[in-house]
């Protein structure tokens, strides 16, 4: 059963998976958010746990950073472990003035400079996007949570999945900003492309931890506090219709 990158056995992973980039965050999600979570894989330090959320089996597996890394884990989950839905829960940098740090961005599409949108179907530039069912469920969950709890705004719109964390090309961000792009991160487009190829469903719910325009950044403590809201939106969406 084990794949080159996941050591879990048959039935060890739930059909619903939360996927942060950071393995430490995956462990914290297992310890503080899921119920009765147990470790099911730790190949290369990319830990995965399975427990439950509101009585439903749910797993968390880290993706590592970047499109190549998340593409490996998402492919193996959908293709070999019977996973149906993956929600990326990650951090992002705001690239437009109307988005602030502490806000949540739910990706409705993911522009990318990665070859993932160009290589998979010859002669075509694909448009990586989340599952509409999960996106709608996330929007509904966000409305309920914003009404219930304090915190920043929740935005739904396109993000930029960059192959470069250190991209010294401000004109790229200006042009994407003018086209309504909300934030930058490094995995959503790869996850969406894999989900569409493998017949799975995917979503990305991002906590805005940095602002590329103002230079503002959350402290590590604040990152954990505000991350919980994205997590709840993503987990509720995974349970959705
Ligand atoms: O917080 P995570 O999920 O890792 O996401 C963001 O943080 C990493 C860069 O620091 C990239 O993986 C980017 O997408
Ligand atoms: O990819 C990322 C993630 C968080 N903040 C950024 O500026 N970029």
TrEMBL record:
<dbReference type="InterPro" id="IPR000845">
    <property type="entry name" value="Nucleoside_phosphorylase_d"/>
</dbReference>
<dbReference type="GO" id="GO:0004850">
    <property type="term" value="F:uridine phosphorylase activity"/>
</dbReference>
<protein>
    <recommendedName>
        <fullName>Uridine phosphorylase</fullName>
        <ecNumber>2.4.2.3</ecNumber>
    </recommendedName>
</protein>
<dbReference type="GO" id="GO:0004731">
    <property type="term" value="F:purine-nucleoside phosphorylase activity"/>
</dbReference>
<keyword id="KW-0328">Glycosyltransferase</keyword>
<dbReference type="InterPro" id="IPR035994">
    <property type="entry name" value="Nucleoside_phosphorylase_sf"/>
</dbReference>
<keyword id="KW-0808">Transferase</keyword>
<dbReference type="GO" id="GO:0006152">
    <property type="term" value="P:purine nucleoside catabolic process"/>
</dbReference>
<dbReference type="GO" id="GO:0005829">
    <property type="term" value="C:cytosol"/>
</dbReference>
<feature type="domain" description="Nucleoside phosphorylase">
    <location>
        <begin position="16"/>
        <end position="227"/>
    </location>
</feature>
<dbReference type="Pfam" id="PF01048">
    <property type="entry name" value="PNP_UDP_1"/>
</dbReference>
<dbReference type="InterPro" id="IPR004402">
    <property type="entry name" value="DeoD-type"/>
</dbReference>
């Amino acid at each position: 059963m084990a794949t080159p990158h996941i050591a879990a056995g048959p039935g060890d992973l739930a059909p619903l998976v939360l996927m942060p980039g950071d393995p430490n965050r995956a462990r914290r999600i297992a310890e503080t958010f899921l119920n009765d979570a147990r470790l099911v894989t730790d190949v290369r330090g990319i830990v995965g746990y399975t427990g439950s959320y509101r009585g439903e089996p749910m797993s968390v597996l880290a993706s590592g950073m970047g499109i190549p890394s998340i593409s490996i884990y998402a492919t193996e989950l959908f293709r070999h472990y019977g996973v149906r839905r993956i929600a990326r829960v990650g951090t992002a940098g705001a690239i437009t003035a109307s988005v602030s740090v502490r806000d949540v961005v739910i990706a409705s599409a993911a522009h990318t400079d990665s070859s993932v949108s160009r290589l998979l179907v010859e002669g075509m530039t694909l448009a990586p996007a989340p599952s509409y069912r999960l996106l709608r469920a996330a929007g509904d969950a966000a409305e309920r949570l914003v009404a219930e709890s304090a915190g920043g705004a929740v935005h739904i719109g396109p993000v930029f999945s960059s192959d470069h964390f250190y991209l010294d090309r401000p004109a790229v961000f200006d042009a994407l900003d003018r086209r309504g792009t909300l934030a930058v991160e490094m995995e959503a487009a790869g996850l969406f492309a894999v989900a569409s190829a493998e017949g799975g469903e995917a979503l990305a719910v991002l906590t805005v931890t940095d602002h590329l325009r103002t230079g503002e950044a959350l402290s590590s403590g604040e990152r954990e506090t505000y991350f919980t809201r994205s997590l709840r939106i993503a987990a509720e969406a995974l349970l959705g219709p």
